[in-house]
Queue: 2 jobs
Job 1
Amino acid sequence: MTHFSYRDGELFAEKVSLTAIAERYGTPTYVYSRAALTEHFRAYSEALNDYPHLVCYAVKANSNIGVLNILARLGAGFDIVSVGELERVLAAGGDASKVIFSGVGKLPHEMARALEAGIHCFNVESEAELEVLNEVAGECGTVANISLRVNPDVDAKTHPYISTGLKENKFGIDIHRAPDVYSRASELPNINIVGVDCHIGSQLTDTSPFIDALQRVLALVDELSARGIALQHLDLGGGLGVRYQNEQPPHPAEYIAALRRELGDRDLTLVLEPGRSIAANAGVLLTRVQYLKPGDEKNFAIVDAAMNDMIRPALYQAWLSIDPVIPREEGNSRHWDIVGPVCETGDFLGKDRALAIEPNDLLCVGSSGAYGFTMSSNYNSRGRAAEIMVDGDQAYEVRQRESLADLIRGETILPV
Ligand SMILES: Cc1ncc(COP(=O)(O)O)c(C=O)c1O
Ligand SMILES: N[C@@H](CCCC[NH3+])C(=O)O
């Protein structure tokens, strides 16, 4: 996390002190770095510079409109999974013609809105969805560009909840059925076949499962071509991992070089849908220690961020770094479980962390820019964290904290 570093005994985001951000905006607060987002996006676009490509940032990783706007200005496309994500992309100035719509459960009204906006392509995930899309496009008096998302049955060797390319997963169409589904698609009047797609999972730290999947998808491309169905693009999804603790995932340039070796000189545009590798290490979560509860068995540090703000440790046993914003003398350190105020035993951000801390100290939860705020909730009727974007020596509030009034807005009791 090179954009978040210590200077003179204090943690900074770029040139802005995290203490100053916490004092001004309160905690818990997500802090993002524009420079990091830019660097991570460019790692993809520069490695593909001389190759036909479209890098569609996976909006689910971090859909803050300020984040989307920074990526839109860099020329990013976007991978969306709902009409809500589409509206956010459009509000952020994203180009609809670079939007790809993934997801197993697209609703007819979402399809209609995406057609109206003029998106690039739908990644169709089932035969039933293909028929509905054909009908909706017909009703809209238009033709839908599609890829089929195929399930190549490749083990991504990641956490089971974020593995998506195995037969037992709900995603995509069995790659062996795909030729027949393409034939069916080619007969439908309101469907235009443009590509093929697969996404095998998230937080992959090795390129071999990607290559395995790519080889299987290329075999399908060749089979389709023999049947007279020519594709314009191949979308390999997202999934490249990041360093949270001591993982050593390949750099995007290394990953892309490996893909290009497989692609050879085929006439296919390469589409990628990275989320985590762009956003995770471009953000942190700031939280303040409220109470210390040392005990015989365990020492608990109760902080003001909870599983409703950052659910990854509770949901995937994910490890995130937790560092003091202003470190104290190490001699006073003890092992703490860093827990939130939510009434769940699973409400923790980290366990057994050696830290020298006192009440009111600020802690920085690292690698939180992806699947942090976007997976947050109002559980326990807690408001949501603020979101701040740091740009050099400036900090901008890109989402205000929810007020208590926001938490009851729009709800009502029965009149009698
Ligand atoms: C279809 C699709 N594309 C892209 C992504 C982004 O994945 P990642 O954040 O691991 O790059 C996901 C999430 O795993 C996904 O389901
Ligand atoms: N939310 C997951 C990854 C996304 C999976 C989406 N297909 C995580 O935090 O690791």
Note: The first strand starts at residue 4 and ends at 7.
Job 2
Amino acid sequence: MIKARGLARQFRARGHTVDAVQGVDIDVSRGELVGFLGPNGAGKSTTLRMLTTLLRPTAGEAVVAGCDLLSDPAGVRKRIGYVAQGHSSGDEQKVIEELVLQGRFYGLAAGESRRRADELLERFDLTEIAGRTAGKLSGGQKRRLDIAMGVIHSPELLFLDEPSTGLDPQSRSNLWDRIRSLRATGTTIFLTTHYLDEADALCDRILVIDHGKIVAEGTPDSLKNQVAGDLVQFETGAPAAAAEIAAKVDGAQELHVDGNTVRFRVAKGDTVLPLLLRQLDQADASLLSIQVHRPTLDDVFLTMTGRSLREESHA
Ligand SMILES: Nc1ncnc2c1ncn2[C@@H]1O[C@H](COP(=O)(O)OP(=O)(O)OP(=O)(O)O)[C@@H](O)[C@H]1O
């Protein structure tokens, strides 16, 4: 659905050249929900604006929804939906009017546009507020209206730029459900985010971008597995004996003993637990508690770039 090669964009600002995107390759298959994750200024929006024909690449090429980005931008625009950051609909119109107008804008006949608008109102939980002016909606309702408008023409591929920025937790989770339901009906989705939990919860696959380059790529789980592994941590009454046992666990790394707490990293924590528990029991090393922590996407970003994504995105 997306095949981009060496896509790059330079900006000139006050005599400087900014290499916002430095030659990215992107492959997205039909039906996938792919997240583009990176800190502020990493190049996410610039890439999205290139893929949606709003910005001409300085170098590279791409085929988007079956059309060549450079030679057939109109073909790309017809087949995709794009929901930019922030609220894009007019504030004076009623919700239903916004949707019908958007459908007409995409060339739907009046009756068809109305039918489609009603369907989307239902699907995005907006039916009850169809007669309200768009300017009076809550943040979550506005964002759902934006997405409904972005898919009025039933695009095969939907681009969402930071869909949940600024929403409270309940509205975010509601929005995630709507995004999942769009994907379940066959829409391919490419979204940008700087929220790790969003990428983790929603995406089949994640591309991590930093300083205009893709630094990691994979499913949330495979990315986490690239990091040193799970952290196994337990409290025991016999830390010295327990540490000796832990040191012999197949693949154990970074063993630390801190008072009664023993911790180490291992590729798959849950698979080493049964044997570890048995051995601790045989050695009479009483166990007070034990936990296995999966690495987070933040650990992935830290490993790839040496910096914490969380710190940057909240800066
Ligand atoms: N029109 C422009 N002129 C000059 N520099 C620009 C322009 N647009 C973007 N940039 C620069 O390009 C880099 C990438 O910006 P971009 O908006 O793509 O990042 P982003 O990952 O989307 O960040 P955010 O999460 O803040 O939206 C930044 O350094 C930005 O300052």
Note: The longest helix spans residues 169-184.
